[in-house]
Design goal:
heterodimer; A: alpha+beta; three-stranded antiparallel beta sheet; 3 strands; globular; disordered N terminus; B: alpha+beta; six-stranded mixed beta barrel; six-stranded mixed barrel; 30 helices; elongated
Chain lengths: ~110, ~900
């Protein structure tokens, strides 16, 4: 039911969902984590991160709660909802299929 | 279940706004703190670390705004905030608001008023079943004086042979002498009546509200004498008593049984009050191929076009013409939508008026656009600050459009009473009566029209200033002085285009109004052919029961005319079957006598009128040759008088006096004893037609015309008393002075003139204000430059010329475009004009001079102000 989005936005949403899948995280940590895991290949545009988070929250894929951060400050933690989990699984499959297909094309041609 | 969460999420955004806002703030601050900390650990100075963090984020306010958008609460809330802000802006500059709202209200009001007329007259379907498929069919002879009509046998042939209509019906023309007197227990009234086939009510889909309709036996000659009454007649003559049904009443002296009452409001055709079945025509009436007195209605089969139907009926008619060459040759068939037949030729005039108000609205929009552009310039800084604070371009645009929409809505609220009263005023001042016209009412169609107008106006007026305001870059407007953002050249071009279009539109309207005025002056100067002052007219109806024979009606009429003649204040009095401008006319066929056997199939037609002895003297119609009627002529019935037009058409170059003609189907020839001047019978704008007069013998329905020495309307009650004094059972109706009839006959022209004139005046005022506004604004902005010119030695006269030339150049371009437009468009109103060409050069010249001089004044005032600029003040100005 998500609106059609372009690749970059869609990818950012996927990355965010995957990142918060295991544990609740705040915005700053999400950005840092994506950067870290991708070994600095993916630099998240901070200006786009927060609107994306709010959009995902509005769509019901993630939910937000206020909690204490590692250095004991109040921060907004995002976690995956059940609907978000299903969505993420579907999107992951899609992504795998898509990248495999692209890889196939790139290899053979 | 997810949508519950979504709704909660959105509602929270809307109603716990401060909490949500606080959270957004906290989240941003948390992020920034982390980013700054990281930057510091990388070795930056605290200030630098903060700046870098903000740049990376891309502006805290912008990100917040995007988050708000993402949450989806913005649309509702922003709109509300825009409305509040718009209202505040309107309160802050009341002058601007009042001028803009008033200007638009005038434009919208005129549109609403005219549209409501168009809607009620032309757009609203007739109150009949499948009204859009109803067709009026008639026969006509090319070049004939009469309106034409169908003969009953022709109708029957069409009915049996056609495949294009689901249903056809015939009804008798409601014309002069289609009145009947009904003697009821409450009062004796006269009413229009129509003889109709049974299918007449089926085709219209109307059933009697009380009682029942005609049955099959009512179409057989010699059947029961029954009638249906309209609700109005039932109430006035029969007291609205349901027990009246089944009882017999005197209808022109014969007993007819009331079998049903039609629903309220049903009076088709043309104010009919009584309907009788075709059985009353008798055997001979059903086989009469000579008289063409029937009109035919048809309901098209779905998918059949009007042209197809006309073609098929025409084919059937051609066959009839071969079978009955004596009677049916020469008659052609015309089919048109029933609505056209009912509303007649008002279509053109209404569309011209609709076009005119469209132009008015455009001019009003141009003026307001002009104001808004000027204001947008003054508000550049405000918009720069807004966009610096995170407002996106769409957001600014929306806010601007909301402001304009508020103004438009206010103006529409004001336009409603304007439209209502304006229309009522126009109708009462011009005493116009268009068929189906109603007073202004806000119904669904009018409301829809206004909403469309509001949307269009908002876009037309709001979009350009909004785009203008929202396209600036922040630093330009914030950094420098307020006028630099919008280059002078560009603004001047836009404002110039506004002036040009305003002038062109105004000239168009002025041309239209000028043509109407000239045509109207020509029209009222037309000599009607008689002296209309001091004439009182009315109609009386003699009940056939009391006066069964024409000798009796003659005797009654003689006595009545005698009684009236001796009244104080009465100069002379006459009776006639119809009167000029009364809206009723009769016609008859005639043959120039001489051949052995009269050949009626090739008879000519002329309008006909039976008149009493004093008719020509009373109306003041000049006798050109010969003599007028005497009492002996009325008795012998062997004389006829013709008008000049008839003499010229049928006896060109010879003297018709003493010639003999056969008229109608009378056996004795009539001798032409006199030629009288042409009187305009139908209307001032209709050319005089051949007309013949016979001496009035007995007639059950006659007009009375009284020439008085005092104000004719003051004599009405006296005349009424005299009629009642002779016989209480004779209804008197249609009382009017001839001046009123004359006024009524030109009422549609006066209505067109009044409205077009009003709209043109309005346009002129708006355009003047517009030109003045643009020039004053331009002078204001050029104060510095003008001061400089003066300081450099320019004379005041140079400055005057500079400004006036700037304005008049635009005005001239507008005038050229306007004349080109007028040449193309006034042709559409050619059918409304009398005696004036649609491209009358004198009119075009006059209105151009008028517009140019008014525009000159509008230019002169700001130019004078420019001339008196003090160079020192101007140079210090910036």
């Amino acid at each position: 039911m998500s609106k059609p989005t372009d690749l970059v936005q869609g990818t950012l949403a996927l990355l965010i969902l995957k990142t918060v899948a295991n544990q609740p995280m705040h915005g700053w940590a999400i950005g840092q984590r994506i950067q870290q895991v991708s070994k600095n290949v993916l630099q998240v545009n901070q200006g786009a991160l927060y609107p994306a988070l709010h959009r995902l929250e509005q769509q019901g894929w993630i939910r937000a709660e206020w909690g204490n951060s590692e250095n004991n400050r109040r921060a907004k933690f995002y976690s995956l909802t059940r609907a978000g989990k299903n969505f993420l699984e579907r999107e992951e499959e899609n992504w795998q299929r898509l990248s495999a297909a692209i890889g196939l094309v790139l290899k053979t041609v | 279940m997810r949508w519950v969460g979504t709704i909660w999420f959105r509602l929270r955004s809307l109603f716990q706004r401060s909490a949500v806002e606080r959270e957004l703030d906290d989240e941003m601050r948390f992020h920034l703190d982390h980013a700054i900390e990281q930057n510091i650990t990388r070795g930056m100075a605290p200030e630098e670390a903060r700046r870098k963090a903000l740049i990376e984020l891309g502006g805290a306010e912008q990100v917040k705004e995007e988050c708000r958008d993402a949450r989806g609460w913005n649309l509702v809330e922003d709109t509300w905030r825009d409305v509040c802000f718009g209202a505040r802006m309107m309160r802050k500059s009341p002058g601007f608001t009042v001028v803009a709202v008033l200007t638009l209200a005038l434009g919208t009001g005129a549109n609403a008023a005219i549209f409501s007329v168009v809607e009620s007259v032309l757009l609203r379907p007739l109150p009949f079943k499948n009204a859009h498929r109803l067709v009026d069919l008639t026969e006509y002879r090319p070049g004939a004086v009469d309106r034409g009509g169908v003969s009953f046998p022709d109708y029957l042939a069409w009915k049996q042979q056609n495949t294009v209509f689901e249903e056809t019906a015939a009804y008798f023309l409601v014309n002069a002498s289609n009145d009947v007197v009904l003697g009821g227990p409450v009062s004796t009234v006269r009413a229009r009546y129509s003889t109709v086939t049974n299918s007449f009510f089926q085709i219209l889909g109307v059933q009697p509200a009380l009682g029942h309709g005609f049955s099959a036996s009512d179409e057989v000659p010699g059947g029961r004498k029954v009638f249906l009454a309209s609700n109005a007649v039932w109430r006035s003559a029969l007291g609205g008593d349901p027990r009246a049904i089944g009882k017999a009443y005197l209808l022109d002296g014969e007993n007819y049984t009331l079998i049903g009452v039609m629903p309220p409001g049903f009076d088709f055709p043309k104010g009919c009050g009584i309907w009788v079945p075709t059985s009353t025509l008798g055997e001979s009436g059903l086989h009469d191929r000579i008289s063409h007195a029937v009109r035919v209605l048809g309901r098209l089969r779905p998918g059949t076009s009007l042209a197809q139907a006309e073609a098929q009926i025409a084919t059937i008619q051609e066959r009839l013409a071969t079978s009955y060459p004596k009677t049916d040759a020469d008659w052609h068939v015309r089919a048109r939508p029933l609505l056209d037949e009912i509303v007649g030729n008002v279509r053109t005039s209404l569309f011209v008026l609709l076009g005119a108000v469209g132009f008015i609205l455009l001019i009003a929009c141009t003026n307001v656009l002009n104001l808004l552009l000027a204001r947008a310039l003054g508000r550049e800084k405000e918009f720069a600050i807004r966009s610096a604070l995170g407002a996106g371009r769409m957001r600014l645009l929306r806010q601007q459009l909301t402001e304009v929409f508020l103004i438009v809505c206010l103006s529409i609220l004001l336009a409603l009473p304007l439209a209502k009263w304006g229309l009522a005023l126009a109708v009462s001042l011009t005493s116009v009566h268009l068929p189906r016209m109603e007073s202004f009412r806000l119904n669904v169609s009018v409301l829809g029209f206004l909403l469309v107008i509001a949307a269009l106006t908002t876009i037309l007026v709001g979009l350009m200033p909004a785009l203008q305001a929202s396209r600036h870059h922040v630093h330009g407007a914030l950094g420098e002085d307020q006028y630099s953002g919008w280059s002078g050249r560009r603004s001047r071009r836009i404002l110039g285009a506004l002036v040009v279009s305003e002038v062109a539109l105004t000239l168009l309207l002025l041309c239209g109004a000028g043509l109407m005025l000239r045509s109207f002056v020509r029209l009222i100067r037309v000599n009607p052919g008689f002296q209309p002052e001091h004439l009182l007219t009315m109609k009386i109806a003699l009940p056939g029961g009391t006066y069964p024979k024409s000798e009796q009606t003659s005797a009654y009429l003689d006595r009545l005319l005698e009684r009236l003649r001796v009244l104080p204040g009465v100069r002379s009095v006459a009776a006639a079957t119809t009167l000029p401008l009364s809206g009723e006319s009769d016609w008859g066929t005639f043959l120039i006598a001489g051949g052995s056997t009269p050949d009626w199939a090739n008879a000519s037609a002329a309008s006909w009128r039976g008149v009493s002895v004093d008719y020509f003297r009373t109306l003041g119609i000049p006798l050109l040759r010969g003599r007028t009627f005497t009492r002996a002529d009325a008795k012998n019935q062997n004389a006829i008088i013709i008008n000049e037009a008839m003499a010229g058409k049928f006896w060109p170059g010879t003297d018709p006096i003493g010639q003999r003609v056969l008229i109608g189907h009378r056996s004795n020839p009539l001798e032409i004893i006199g030629i009288v001047g042409d009187a305009r019978g139908v209307g001032l704008n209709a050319k005089p037609k051949p007309e013949m007069y016979t001496a009035l013998r007995g007639f059950w329905y006659t007009f009375l015309v009284v020439r008085t020495t005092r104000e004719p309307s003051s004599m009405a009650s006296t005349v009424r008393e005299q009629v009642a004094g002779l016989d209480k059972g004779v209804p008197v109706y249609q009382i009017a002075t001839m001046d009123q009839l004359l006024g009524r006959s030109v009422a549609p022209d006066r209505f067109n003139l009044f409205l077009l004139g009003l709209f043109a005046a309005l346009a002129l005022v708006l355009a003047t204000v517009g030109i003045y506004g643009v020039l004053a604004f331009s002078v204001g902005r050029r104060t510095h430059e003008i001061g400089m010119r003066l300081a450099m030695g320019a004379h005041q006269a140079d400055i005057l010329r500079l400004v006036v030339r700037q304005g008049m150049k635009l005005v001239l371009v507008g005038i050229v475009l306007g004349i080109a437009g007028a040449l193309a468009l006034t042709r559409l109103m050619a059918s409304l004009l009398y005696g004036v060409s649609a491209t009358d050069p004198a009119t075009f010249m006059a209105v151009t001079v008028l517009l140019a001089s008014v525009a000159m004044m509008a230019c002169y005032v700001p130019a004078r102000r420019a001339m008196h600029v003090d160079p020192m003040v101007a140079l210090r100005h910036e």
